């Protein structure tokens, strides 16, 4: 998939105004003060997981890199910024020439993350780094929230496929990003056609009650659907009476009906009854797809029921109670002068709460000798050398402004599957708990207190 | 604001694939069965408010009408749909010619709604109405969720301004829609620049900790900000020590500092201390803006503190616990044949839960003689005639495919302000409760049971 086709008919010519006002006024002040070109390192990270969650899933990397590529200030944007006095003329001139020319490292897409994991490290001038804050956070906070919820759902579904059907319950373009994130986290397909076109996520559909109600009776409706879509279609059987509808669907297809969909009622009970009915009618190959306010707990609760697939909507696109990750983007180091060779000094907010750890980070995941993850090791300076079984988590994404990574979703999806499989088994628990592995901090002098550890 | 500039540099050439797969396969089956052209009425409504909420706010009307205008299947979309066998050639041919040619009525933007309120009534053929389901629901479910939360926040803030700052915590284009929705519900401004450019929402900014940390010390940072942005700027004073920072800001501006921003700590206590300090330094006109995980309850709790404005982020863009409204889009009536003059027959799903009320609705808000809203009156057939003080809630939005309504945000914002002011005082309560007025149903024969009333 080329980048140009990735934007497709909903191409966004510039992403540069998906930005908070204050980034450009800080830029304006720093340009005037002569501090804008100080070598700076920004870090994108989360202080904690949502309460009770065991792990998080990094998502949005590919979308963020595309947004970076489209991040330039065109004439209309600059005119708006000048007319509203957000920027002055020297700042507008600087923005007109802006193309990001720095380096970015990050956790690859689909990877697992924990509290404090440095998901992105942006190494550039202050000016170049500060104006990316909002667009990077928007993409990471949304996409990772969806992928983190989706991963719990696919974990609970096991071998049974999950289909993303939540477009109608979230903003229309967030829906496209949500379908992408769900696919990375193991969903098999989406109902969202734009996600199919833009990202090649497989699309699936069943039928709505309106289609049945349009016709004189269920037989007429099912006959019309089967005539157009074949016997392998999925019939929605709960408009009037489920038993009658299942019988009708089986009769019209000579027992070769692809699937039935149950969208209301007690799904475990209904699925058991419908399975028995289908089998008694000889439709032993007909599958049962359930939908209706499913989340990871309901999916787990249905594991004993004869269900062949889950359609998940609202809970998926709203992050199952946690629609945002709470990632922040902080300056962690900067030079004292604008000499490009000046040494970096660690910086961090000091007062009261919301502290962060200054300094440019490395990040490793440490595994035991059975290959099970046991520690997220984050530090400042060079990573420790030794015979530990560690994986470096930060990979180069952008170098000198050039985007290095362009992968299709299958790669991120496979990375997620493997990375989740490395976690301790407690990661699969749906009950509330702590992150399944600890985060530890190191500096040149040894271990540091974990500033994000819960206060006991 | 013209429609063309409304799409601006993030123009979406087509919204037609912001659609669920099944809508096009239902269309395909209905075209083949000869039922696609039956005169049909679809209704968009919510069965209930989020638990505990007293009222909801209709939002997304203007965006939905623009999405309708951009809803056409271009060559690339059709190629995708044919290549993936979502549609066959006759369906693709039908889609290639598609322009919505029906009528749409709806609650105007900014109006209050209650359980069962028919927010949109789409009168067209089945084919034309069915394919709009997802894009209409996506826009209404998102924008109304944000506006409903925002309205509670501005109600609690009273005369103090609320500024929307949540872009970083939601998907990057959902952020633009959220800023628009917040403005309609009474927010004064947004940090989101694209919302400024696209919708003319006023934009505001303060400063980030990174700007302070970039500089050698706070004095240097504040001096740079004041030099570029003037003394009327807002200084962020909690990077190191709030007291020192406030003193520095006042000294550098000779007491003429515009505002200080507090972004952490105990905001009520801090605001009181900072107000006393500012006053003791003679900076009696300097305002105090607070931010940091504010929601409607925190805003209410700060009503006694000397605060001059609230910056609201995460809670706003995530709908303060309810990121989606749960609106559905249901076929409520259709003809038995494709004769355009054939009479409409009410239809509704019958089995188990998720019932709806068939039939094409009218909707009135009834007021007592003091002008206070007392009933949402919904019915089938002609509205009752009498000397009641009623307002018709459904206004024509689209007629014969032509979009009739194009209003700027100020009109919707003013409508919201007035409509909220008509509600009983209980609407202002932050405690959980029932909708502040009841919904009642009428048909030609008199009153109906309310199918959405909570089961006692």
TrEMBL record, chains A, B:
Start and end residues of each Nicotinate phosphoribosyltransferase N-terminal domain: 17-140
Swiss-Prot/TrEMBL catalytic activity: 5-phospho-alpha-D-ribose 1-diphosphate + nicotinate + ATP + H2O = nicotinate beta-D-ribonucleotide + ADP + phosphate + diphosphate
Cytoplasm as UniProt keyword: no
UniProt PTM: Transiently phosphorylated on a His residue during the reaction cycle. Phosphorylation strongly increases the affinity for substrates and increases the rate of nicotinate D-ribonucleotide production. Dephosphorylation regenerates the low-affinity form of the enzyme, leading to product release.
Annotated Gene3D superfamilies: Aldolase class I, nicotinate phosphoribosyltransferase
EC number: 6.3.4.21
Pfam families hit by this protein: NAPRTase, NAPRTase_N
Pathway noted in the entry: Cofactor biosynthesis; NAD(+) biosynthesis; nicotinate D-ribonucleotide from nicotinate: step 1/1
GO cellular component, one term: cytosol
Example GO biological process: NAD+ biosynthetic process via the salvage pathway
Molecular functions per Gene Ontology: glycosyltransferase activity; nicotinate phosphoribosyltransferase activity
Every Nicotinate/nicotinamide phosphoribosyltransferase domain range: 163-330
Keyword terms of this UniProt record: Glycosyltransferase, Ligase, Phosphoprotein, Pyridine nucleotide biosynthesis, Transferase
Cross-referenced InterPro entries: Aldolase_TIM (IPR013785), N/Namide_PRibTrfase (IPR041525), NAPRTase_N (IPR040727), Nic_PRibTrfase-Fam (IPR007229), Nic_PRibTrfase_pncB (IPR006405), Nicotinate_pribotase-like_C (IPR036068)
Membership in a protein family: Belongs to the NAPRTase family.
Biological role stated in the UniProt entry: Catalyzes the first step in the biosynthesis of NAD from nicotinic acid, the ATP-dependent synthesis of beta-nicotinate D-ribonucleotide from nicotinate and 5-phospho-D-ribose 1-phosphate.
Designated name of the protein: Nicotinate phosphoribosyltransferase
Gene: pncB
């Amino acid at each position: 998939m080329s980048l140009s086709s990735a934007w497709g008919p909903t191409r966004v010519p510039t992403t540069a105004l998906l930005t908070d006002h204050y980034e450009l006024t800080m830029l304006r002040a720093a340009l005037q003060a002569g501090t804008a070109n100080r070598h700076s390192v920004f870090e994108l990270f989360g202080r904690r997981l949502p309460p009770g969650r065991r792990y998080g899933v990094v998502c949005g990397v590919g979308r963020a890199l595309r947004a970076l590529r489209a991040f330039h200030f065109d004439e209309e944007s600059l005119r708006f910024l000048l007319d509203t006095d957000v920027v002055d003329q020297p700042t507008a001139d600087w923005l007109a020439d802006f193309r990001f020319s720095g380096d970015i490292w990050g956790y690859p897409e689909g990877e697992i993350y924990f509290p404090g994991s440095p998901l992105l490290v942006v190494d550039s001038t202050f000016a170049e780094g500060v104006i990316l804050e909002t667009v990077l956070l928007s993409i990471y906070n949304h996409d990772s929230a969806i992928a983190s919820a989706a991963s719990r759902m696919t974990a609970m579904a096991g071998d049974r496929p999950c289909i993303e059907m939540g477009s109608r319950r979230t903003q229309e373009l967030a829906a496209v990003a949500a379908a992408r994130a769900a696919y990375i986290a193991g969903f098999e397909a989406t109902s969202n056609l734009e996600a199919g076109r833009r990202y090649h996520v497989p699309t699936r559909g069943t039928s709505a009650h309106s289609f049945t109600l349009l016709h004189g009776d269920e037989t007429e409706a099912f006959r019309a659907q089967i005539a157009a879509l074949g016997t392998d279609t999925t019939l929605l059987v709960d408009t009037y009476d489920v038993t009658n509808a299942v019988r009708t669907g089986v009769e019209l297809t000579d027992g070769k009906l692809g699937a039935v969909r149950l969208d209301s009622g007690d799904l475990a009970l209904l699925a058991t009854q419908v399975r028995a009915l289908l089998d008694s009618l000889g439709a032993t190959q007909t599958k049962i797809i359930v939908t209706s306010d499913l989340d990871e707990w309901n999916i787990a609760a249905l594991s004993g029921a004869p269900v062949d697939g889950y359609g998940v909507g609202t809970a998926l696109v709203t992050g199952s109670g946690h629609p945002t990750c709470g990632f922040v983007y902080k300056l962690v180091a900067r030079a004292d002068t604008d000499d490009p060779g000046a040494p970096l000094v660690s910086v961090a907010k000091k007062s009261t709460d919301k502290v962060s750890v200054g300094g440019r980070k490395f990040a490793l995941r440490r595994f035991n000798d059975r290959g099970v993850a046991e520690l997220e090791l984050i530090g400042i300076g060079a990573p420790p050398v030794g015979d530990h079984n560690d994986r470096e988590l930060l990979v180069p994404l952008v170098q000198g402004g050039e985007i290095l990574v362009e992968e299709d979703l299958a790669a991120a999806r496979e990375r997620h599957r493997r990375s989740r499989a490395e976690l301790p088994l407690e990661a699969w628990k749906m009950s509330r708990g702590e992150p399944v592995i600890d985060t530890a901090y190191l500096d040149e002098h040894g271990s540091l207190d974990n500033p994000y550890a819960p206060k006991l």
